[in-house]
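2024-03-11 09:14:02 INFO worker-7 job=invfold-0412 stage=load source=structure_tokens
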């Protein structure tokens, strides 16, 4: 039988200790310990998430972060939660502490109305499956744009850069239209959009436009070194033609800019599979758990979760 943790929402000083603890796992960015702590405390997610501390033998030995989310579930907005930063100090592992932390957080959030829990697993998902989480379709795709064949000019459009801070309403409308008919998606209200813009502020935003200036959607990219990461996008009308137009335009633009790789989290569609190739993600695997017993994670929900975007990862 596992030992019992003393679990509670973390104080500000305990948050500092949590970053001190997890330096062994997430501090490998060329930062000193103190730089790692300062980096963590300045993340937008530090203020958005609620840190949870677990104590054993008078020491803070386990932690996680709860993010409050909303899901669009079969046309209805329902409150939910996201779990991130699950960590146990190495000397205290194999004692059931992570499972206790998860149960405590889930019970607390369910009591406040949360109906679904979401996490992105970096470990063997069978661990979380034992705790009630179900693996969803999780794909990634990467391609060297110089080696792709972009057909006639009529199959590409134009990417027009813009400042997202001035276009939140338009972004929100496009995203909502793009996801309206999906059986499940992450619902993004104004507050969530503002958070997404604070998170990774160096990302670039582009409108997708046709040759005559008609706006068809947007794409959000993280462009660094010679890699172009597709982090978010939405289309006004999601058809095979518009999807081809988006990704062919993106690949052509990346080739013109001499990017060596383009890709990221991508859904399994004929267009994406042809242009990028797809592999199952071995990390950041999307997993869902119903907290409300009336919710059933049917096959279409598990499949459609492949449309969760990389920017929603916490």
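2024-03-11 09:14:09 INFO worker-7 stage=emit residues=314
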């Amino acid at each position: 039988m596992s030992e019992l943790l003393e679990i509670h929402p973390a104080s500000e000083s305990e948050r500092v200790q949590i970053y001190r603890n997890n330096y062994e796992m997430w501090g490998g960015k060329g930062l000193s310990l103190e730089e790692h702590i300062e980096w963590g405390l300045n993340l937008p997610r530090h203020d958005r998430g609620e840190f949870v501390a677990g104590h054993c033998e008078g020491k803070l030995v386990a932690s996680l972060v709860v993010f409050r989310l909303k899901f669009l579930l079969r046309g209805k907005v329902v409150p939910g939660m996201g779990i991130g930063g699950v960590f146990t100090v190495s000397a205290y592992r194999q004692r059931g502490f992570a499972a206790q932390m998860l149960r405590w957080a889930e019970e607390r959030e369910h009591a406040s109305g949360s109906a679904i829990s979401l996490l992105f697993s970096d470990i063997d998902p069978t661990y979380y499956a034992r705790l009630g989480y179900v693996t969803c379709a999780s794909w990634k795709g990467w391609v060297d744009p110089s080696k792709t064949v972009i057909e006639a000019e009529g199959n590409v459009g134009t990417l027009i850069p813009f400042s997202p801070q001035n276009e939140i309403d338009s972004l929100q409308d496009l995203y909502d239209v793009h996801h309206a008919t999906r059986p499940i998606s992450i619902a993004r209200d104004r507050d969530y959009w503002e958070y997404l813009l604070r998170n990774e502020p160096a990302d670039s935003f582009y409108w997708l436009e046709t040759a005559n200036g008609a706006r068809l959607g947007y794409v959000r990219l993280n462009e660094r070194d010679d890699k172009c990461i597709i982090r978010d996008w939405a289309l006004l009308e999601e058809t095979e033609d518009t999807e081809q137009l988006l990704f062919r335009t993106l690949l052509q633009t990346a080739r013109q800019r001499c990017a060596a790789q383009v890709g990221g989290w991508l859904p399994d569609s004929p267009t994406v599979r042809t242009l990028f190739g797809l592999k199952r993600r071995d990390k950041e695997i999307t997993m869902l758990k119903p907290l409300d017993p009336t919710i059933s994670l049917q096959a279409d929900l598990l499949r459609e979760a492949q449309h969760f975007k990389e920017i929603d990862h916490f």
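2024-03-11 09:14:09 INFO worker-7 stage=report msg="The mean pLDDT is 94."
2024-03-11 09:14:10 INFO worker-7 job finished
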